[in-house]
Specification:
This is Peptidase M12B domain-containing protein. This protein is an alpha+beta fold. The protein has eight helices and 25 strands. The longest helix is centred in the middle third of the chain and has 18 residues.
């Protein structure tokens, strides 16, 4: 059994929009790229940060939106050479006319261009990292491992592109397959322009073989996806997300204060219960939280309803990999750890809010999912349903400033995966609101907990479409010290005018020990 003393309702804020709840006193200095942890303390004074853009990047002193990219990992690799000899997806597969018709008919929604390629996922994985690294994690652990530093891929056109490998992590399942899931998080370089790339190697239930799923951000709102098609044949699709016309402007974020019971006082519960959990941690001989590879783990349990398809487990793994790539790109020192993906024996409701509230209350078939969360110690629970309903692709709870792990639930439609909906809803659980332009009032739970959009340029995961000008959704969270991928002159976030150089720490407890890191 996977037991934890910590980590609950994380509130993700990478400098401007993300707040991470963890059970220790932590000072996160995004300007210096450092994290200091002191589990014995419960309060830290605001941390003053240098205004220099040399180490941490940020908006230039003249106030322009140009960004000083952060360190060597933000340097362009136009001349980088792949350390592997094989280019992924370079070999076109030989398929019969009949098979091609079948594959074309099963193309993902929004596919405007297709290729069918030969690809051996197991061989590619063996080239990427060794056996020792592959099995480095313990059950329920996500561990960053050493691997090749770059690779080359070929999607469309004759010229392969280089992908810098920024992070490779293995997650050993708690149950089921004996083989780990492998995430490859990277940055692709397309004519000197940076784009995101993420891959998930997913084992079968027996642990005997692997399949690969991946996403490569495109130059516009047309990313490329990679997924298995049939017997060693993979499909590469270019997806026109705009053509999907998915609902995006619904009220999908519910502040937990709006659903508290009359006798429910989250602040009182937090103050009282945190002391119990701290004492429990001490009795167990454990620190309040453990950072693995300098990263804080957000344990995730995923459920799926009828109608989500036979490949949903692998598709969820791919979504988690893409979320972690966004966190990595946004300089957030936390990652999702996929503990388990399990079926829920019910059909989705007509209204997503009904499914969301049923998870919290544990009604009917949702009781098993809620009980499983408790047995695993999962911080968050995400439910995947087949389709958008009631004009919404998803719905999630937004925590209060004190947290509220009881409400760490979200619902996302598989139909909307291409528009980063699952990432968006989990972002709400982690404390990120929509962009200011899309809000009717202040951001929640903090005034700076907002997404960021630049009309005519781009927007982050949490932002809605711009009015009057295109702004494709980029897989990253807002951070004033990080530029939008592909747009180095534009910051992905706005600094808070009064406190953009401060970090403050709070303790919180909802149903597990937590502490808040507000870094902005």
């Amino acid at each position: 059994m996977h037991k934890k003393v910590a980590l609950t309702s994380f509130v993700l804020v990478s400098c401007a929009a993300l707040v991470v709840w963890i059970p220790a006193t932590i000072i996160f200095d995004s300007a210096e790229g450092s994290v200091n942890v002191n589990p014995a303390s419960t309060l830290a004074e605001p941390l003053e940060r240098s205004n220099s853009s040399e180490a941490g990047g940020g908006v230039h002193e003249d106030g322009s939106a140009a960004i000083a990219e952060v360190g060597a990992r933000e340097q362009t690799l136009e001349t980088a050479e792949a350390q592997t000899e094989t280019t992924w997806f370079a070999e076109d597969a030989r398929v019969s006319s009949e098979m091609k018709r079948e594959l074309d008919a099963s193309a993902p929604a929004g596919s405007v261009k297709q290729r069918y390629v030969e690809f051996d996922a197991a061989s590619a994985l063996a080239t990427l990292l060794g056996t020792k690294a592959l099995y480095a994690a313990t059950p329920g652990e996500r561990k960053v491992v050493e691997a090749e530093k770059s690779l080359t891929v070929q999607t469309f056109g004759d010229t392969p592109v280089t992908i810098r490998v920024d992070e490779v992590a293995v997650t050993q399942p708690l149950e089921g397959s004996s083989a780990p899931m492998v995430e490859v998080l990277g940055t692709r370089f397309d004519n000197g322009v940076q784009r995101s790339a993420s891959f998930a190697f997913v084992p079968d239930e027996a642990g005997d073989s692997y399949t690969l799923r991946g996403q490569l951000e495109g130059s516009t709102s047309a990313p490329s996806t990679i997924e298995p098609a049939s017997n060693g044949v993979y499909r590469v699709d270019e997806i026109d997300v705009d053509s999907l016309e998915l609902p995006e402007d619904g009220e999908d974020a519910i502040p937990v204060e709006d659903v508290f019971d009359g006798d429910e006082n989250v602040e009182a519960d937090a103050a009282a219960d945190s002391q119990l959990d701290v004492a429990g941690a001490a009795l167990a001989g454990a620190t309040a939280t453990t950072a693995t590879d300098g990263l804080y783990n957000i344990d995730l349990l995923v459920g799926y309803t009828h109608g989500t398809g036979p490949n949903i487990v692998a598709e969820v793994a791919s979504q988690v990999s893409q979320t972690n790539q966004a966190l990595q790109r946004s300089q957030v020192n936390a990652r999702l750890v996929l503990l388990e993906t399990r079926g829920v024996d019910l059909n989705q409701s007509v209204d997503m809010r009904a499914d969301l509230t049923s998870m919290v209350s544990g009604d009917g078939q949702m009781a098993a999912l809620r009980d499983r969360r408790e047995s695993l110690g999962a911080d968050l629970v995400a439910l995947v349903v087949p389709n958008a309903t009631s004009g919404s692709c998803g719905i999630a709870y937004l925590p209060s400033p004190q947290g509220a792990s009881k409400y760490g639930y979200s619902v996302s439609a598989k139909q909307c995966f291409a528009n980063l909906t699952m990432l968006h809803e989990i972002g709400h659980n982690l404390g990120a609101s929509h962009n200011h332009e899309a809000l009717s009032g202040p951001a929640h739970p903090f005034s700076y907990s907002a997404g960021h959009a630049v009309p005519g340029v781009a927007r982050d995961i949490m932002s809605y479409a711009c009015s009057g000008a295109p702004c494709p959704r980029i897989p990253q969270f807002s951070n004033p010290n990080v530029s939008f991928l592909g747009f180095p002159a534009y910051s992905s976030g706005l600094p808070d005018e009064a406190t953009s150089r401060e970090a403050s720490i709070r303790w919180h407890r909802s149903s597990r020990t937590t502490a808040a890191v507000q870094s902005h």
